[in-house]
Request: fold
Amino acid sequence: MRNNKKLLKKSIFVIGLVFVALNLRPAITSVGPLIQDIRNDLGISNGVAGLLTTVPLLAFAILSLFAPRIGRKFGNEAAIILGLFLLGIGIVVRPFESVTLLFLGTILIGVGIAIVNVLLPGIIKGKFPAKIGLMTGVYTLSMGLAASLGSGLSIPISQQMQLGWENALRFWVFLVMLAIVAWLPQLKKDTSVAKKVRSLPTKSSLWKSKLAWQVTLFMGIQSFLFYCMISWLPEILASRGMDLATAGWLVGFMQFIGLPATFIAPVLADRLSDQKKIVKAIGFLSVIGIGLLLLDVQSILLVGLSVVMMGTAFGASISLALTFISLRTRNAEQAANLSGMAQSVGYLLAACGPFMIGFLYDWYASWSFSLIVLVGLSIVMMIAGVGAGQAKYVDDENKSLMP
Reply:
């Protein structure tokens, strides 16, 4: 009987985890396809419109540092509800025909997602310490699938269903409401566990830990590479003679093809004594995939191979980065702190990436130098990842980190 209750409790948690994860990207990825309609209706410039995808990343970078404190104050499970609530308000407020409300809603969306982003690895660490890889794979796969749906459903909802861009953006609030309902049972968790987690010392020197910085750099550079390619791959392919419609489809395909790797990488990582081989495979795929774009050829086979390799590398790298947060820490509290550090730096780099790569293109009037920089960063990511893949904890270097 007790085993049945435990199984039911775990099943309810997994269902809640999946619904929460499904909300972490659509509010952002649904904007891109609608950006032209938003710009025309509100009379904003391309630069201002571009901030709609940059502002959430900046919110991630800033709020990620404070999310662990929010988790300690309210409890991680309750803080997830708070994050979802802010996300829902942002989704509802953003589509009003006001530039002020547009950005207020966008900021709230970034704040809400940032809280959830940071706290989930710690919750998984506390709930499933023996199945970190599997649970991380479940929620990153859900997150990636929802990101693709966010991009793919925006135009059909707006145009085919004739609901307009406003309702296409508001549509995702229903998914937030489902997630809140699905997560509510977690507020009835064992209070002794909650007190034990919140009673752990909160001060640490993670910022002085070499291993913590290796995890952070791996997280940051993979985010940088992903968002640069999401932003500029259509233009890069168009400069090689491909039509923009096909190039845009390939960007969606790149995200979709990476979904299996998103699930497999953390599951495999959890079964290995260290993750160096996985990191090297990711680095190889990223270097070759991006490097193929340096060949000024119009072969659809080579372009397709490049997209498959990049999609696999990016899909595996984000889930592995999140898995590192749990594998390199001893408990949920430490995992939340490392998650805040890694995601803060990571999303700051991600927010700067598209701008920097675009600036290099404007400066050199060629994508070649930008692509060489991205290949170089792939190598740096691999070096940092090999360090992050060592079978040890962040406090092994400095015992002052240990709770």
